[in-house]
Design brief:
183 residues, alpha/beta, UDP N-Acetylglucosamine Acyltransferase, domain 1, seven-stranded mixed β-sheet, five-stranded parallel β-sheet, 4 helices, 20 strands, 30% strand
Amino acid sequence: MEQSELEKMQAGEWYTCLDDQLEVLRMHALEATHAHNHLPPSQRRGLSAPLQALFASHGEGCLIEVPFHCSYGMNITLGSGVFLNSGCVILDSAPVTIGDNTLIGPGAQIYCAQHHKVVEQRRAGIEIAYPVAIGQDVWIGGGAIIMPGVTIGDRAIVGAGSVVTRDVPSGATFVGNPARAVG
Protein backbone atom coordinates (compact mmCIF):
# COMPACT_ATOMS: atom_id res chain seq x y z
CA MET A 1 0.00 0.00 0.00
CA GLU A 2 1.40 3.37 -1.02
CA GLN A 3 1.95 6.01 1.64
CA SER A 4 -0.01 9.26 1.48
CA GLU A 5 1.90 12.53 1.17
CA LEU A 6 0.92 13.29 4.80
CA GLU A 7 2.39 9.96 5.94
CA LYS A 8 5.60 10.69 4.00
CA MET A 9 5.79 14.18 5.53
CA GLN A 10 5.27 12.81 9.05
CA ALA A 11 7.90 10.09 8.45
CA GLY A 12 10.51 12.67 7.45
CA GLU A 13 10.60 11.49 3.83
CA TRP A 14 10.41 13.42 0.58
CA TYR A 15 6.79 14.33 -0.22
CA THR A 16 4.87 16.70 -2.45
CA CYS A 17 3.28 19.68 -0.73
CA LEU A 18 0.97 20.01 -3.77
CA ASP A 19 -1.42 17.44 -2.33
CA ASP A 20 -5.17 17.76 -1.68
CA GLN A 21 -5.03 16.25 1.82
CA LEU A 22 -2.21 18.59 2.85
CA GLU A 23 -4.09 21.54 1.33
CA VAL A 24 -7.11 20.71 3.53
CA LEU A 25 -4.86 20.69 6.61
CA ARG A 26 -3.24 23.99 5.63
CA MET A 27 -6.68 25.54 5.08
CA HIS A 28 -7.73 24.36 8.56
CA ALA A 29 -4.65 26.12 9.98
CA LEU A 30 -5.43 29.27 7.97
CA GLU A 31 -8.97 29.33 9.36
CA ALA A 32 -7.70 28.93 12.94
CA THR A 33 -4.99 31.57 12.61
CA HIS A 34 -7.43 33.94 10.90
CA ALA A 35 -9.85 33.52 13.82
CA HIS A 36 -6.99 34.08 16.30
CA ASN A 37 -5.67 37.11 14.43
CA HIS A 38 -9.09 38.78 14.38
CA LEU A 39 -10.06 38.37 18.03
CA PRO A 40 -10.74 41.62 19.88
CA PRO A 41 -7.77 42.59 22.09
CA SER A 42 -9.80 41.94 25.24
CA GLN A 43 -10.15 38.26 24.21
CA ARG A 44 -6.45 37.65 23.50
CA ARG A 45 -5.21 36.94 27.01
CA GLY A 46 -3.78 33.45 27.14
CA LEU A 47 -3.69 31.08 24.20
CA SER A 48 -6.76 31.61 22.03
CA ALA A 49 -9.30 28.81 21.65
CA PRO A 50 -8.67 28.45 17.88
CA LEU A 51 -4.96 27.83 18.48
CA GLN A 52 -5.59 25.57 21.47
CA ALA A 53 -7.68 23.35 19.20
CA LEU A 54 -5.11 23.46 16.39
CA PHE A 55 -1.82 22.75 18.20
CA ALA A 56 -0.59 19.26 19.10
CA SER A 57 -0.37 20.35 22.75
CA HIS A 58 0.30 23.36 24.93
CA GLY A 59 1.05 24.18 28.53
CA GLU A 60 -0.54 26.80 30.76
CA GLY A 61 0.00 30.53 30.45
CA CYS A 62 1.01 30.73 26.77
CA LEU A 63 0.41 33.89 24.76
CA ILE A 64 0.71 34.42 21.02
CA GLU A 65 0.38 38.01 19.84
CA VAL A 66 -1.21 38.83 16.50
CA PRO A 67 -0.59 38.43 13.70
CA PHE A 68 0.53 34.81 13.81
CA HIS A 69 0.87 32.29 10.99
CA CYS A 70 1.59 28.57 10.86
CA SER A 71 1.41 25.98 8.07
CA TYR A 72 -0.39 23.15 9.86
CA GLY A 73 -0.44 23.86 13.61
CA MET A 74 -0.92 20.17 14.36
CA ASN A 75 2.88 19.79 14.63
CA ILE A 76 3.37 22.57 17.22
CA THR A 77 3.93 21.73 20.89
CA LEU A 78 4.29 24.55 23.41
CA GLY A 79 5.43 24.24 27.00
CA SER A 80 4.03 26.44 29.76
CA GLY A 81 4.60 30.19 29.76
CA VAL A 82 5.66 30.41 26.09
CA PHE A 83 5.37 33.89 24.55
CA LEU A 84 5.45 34.61 20.81
CA ASN A 85 5.45 38.29 19.97
CA SER A 86 3.65 39.80 16.98
CA GLY A 87 4.40 38.63 13.47
CA CYS A 88 5.83 35.21 14.29
CA VAL A 89 5.68 32.51 11.62
CA ILE A 90 6.05 28.76 12.22
CA LEU A 91 6.16 26.66 9.05
CA ASP A 92 5.55 23.36 10.84
CA SER A 93 5.80 20.66 8.21
CA ALA A 94 7.61 18.68 10.93
CA PRO A 95 7.32 18.80 14.72
CA VAL A 96 8.18 22.13 16.37
CA THR A 97 8.65 21.92 20.13
CA ILE A 98 9.08 25.07 22.22
CA GLY A 99 9.96 24.60 25.89
CA ASP A 100 8.63 26.24 29.04
CA ASN A 101 9.12 29.99 29.55
CA THR A 102 10.64 30.58 26.13
CA LEU A 103 10.29 34.08 24.68
CA ILE A 104 10.27 34.65 20.92
CA GLY A 105 10.57 38.20 19.60
CA PRO A 106 8.48 39.93 16.94
CA GLY A 107 8.82 38.73 13.38
CA ALA A 108 10.78 35.60 14.27
CA GLN A 109 10.39 32.69 11.87
CA ILE A 110 10.78 28.94 12.34
CA TYR A 111 11.10 26.80 9.20
CA CYS A 112 10.90 23.01 8.89
CA ALA A 113 10.58 22.42 5.14
CA GLN A 114 13.50 22.21 2.78
CA HIS A 115 12.69 22.31 -0.92
CA HIS A 116 14.35 19.95 -3.38
CA LYS A 117 17.60 21.16 -4.95
CA VAL A 118 16.70 19.79 -8.40
CA VAL A 119 14.60 22.44 -10.13
CA GLU A 120 12.13 19.98 -11.73
CA GLN A 121 11.49 18.38 -8.34
CA ARG A 122 11.10 21.80 -6.74
CA ARG A 123 8.55 22.78 -9.41
CA ALA A 124 6.63 19.61 -8.56
CA GLY A 125 6.40 20.69 -4.91
CA ILE A 126 8.83 18.07 -3.63
CA GLU A 127 10.19 18.88 -0.17
CA ILE A 128 11.37 17.24 3.02
CA ALA A 129 10.78 18.50 6.57
CA TYR A 130 13.06 18.42 9.60
CA PRO A 131 11.92 19.02 13.20
CA VAL A 132 12.92 22.08 15.22
CA ALA A 133 13.36 21.82 18.99
CA ILE A 134 13.70 24.88 21.21
CA GLY A 135 14.45 24.30 24.89
CA GLN A 136 13.24 25.93 28.08
CA ASP A 137 13.96 29.54 29.08
CA VAL A 138 15.26 30.40 25.60
CA TRP A 139 15.17 33.98 24.33
CA ILE A 140 14.98 34.43 20.55
CA GLY A 141 15.29 38.03 19.40
CA GLY A 142 13.04 39.76 16.90
CA GLY A 143 13.43 38.86 13.25
CA ALA A 144 15.51 35.75 13.94
CA ILE A 145 15.17 32.83 11.53
CA ILE A 146 15.49 29.24 12.75
CA MET A 147 16.27 26.85 9.90
CA PRO A 148 15.06 23.23 9.45
CA GLY A 149 16.48 20.61 11.78
CA VAL A 150 17.93 23.03 14.36
CA THR A 151 17.90 22.33 18.09
CA ILE A 152 18.33 25.23 20.52
CA GLY A 153 19.31 24.20 24.04
CA ASP A 154 17.85 25.38 27.34
CA ARG A 155 18.65 28.96 28.46
CA ALA A 156 20.20 29.85 25.07
CA ILE A 157 19.91 33.31 23.53
CA VAL A 158 19.56 33.99 19.79
CA GLY A 159 20.20 37.62 18.86
CA ALA A 160 17.75 39.70 16.87
CA GLY A 161 18.03 39.19 13.13
CA SER A 162 20.16 36.07 13.45
CA VAL A 163 19.86 33.18 11.01
CA VAL A 164 20.35 29.95 12.93
CA THR A 165 21.62 27.21 10.59
CA ARG A 166 23.04 24.80 13.19
CA ASP A 167 22.35 23.66 16.73
CA VAL A 168 22.78 26.10 19.62
CA PRO A 169 24.11 24.53 22.85
CA SER A 170 22.38 25.10 26.18
CA GLY A 171 23.30 28.44 27.74
CA ALA A 172 25.05 29.75 24.59
CA THR A 173 24.45 33.09 22.89
CA PHE A 174 24.40 33.02 19.08
CA VAL A 175 24.20 36.09 16.82
CA GLY A 176 24.67 36.99 13.17
CA ASN A 177 24.11 35.50 9.74
CA PRO A 178 24.90 32.69 9.90
CA ALA A 179 24.55 32.73 13.68
CA ARG A 180 27.75 32.07 15.64
CA ALA A 181 28.58 31.80 19.33
CA VAL A 182 29.64 34.96 21.13
CA GLY A 183 30.95 35.78 24.63
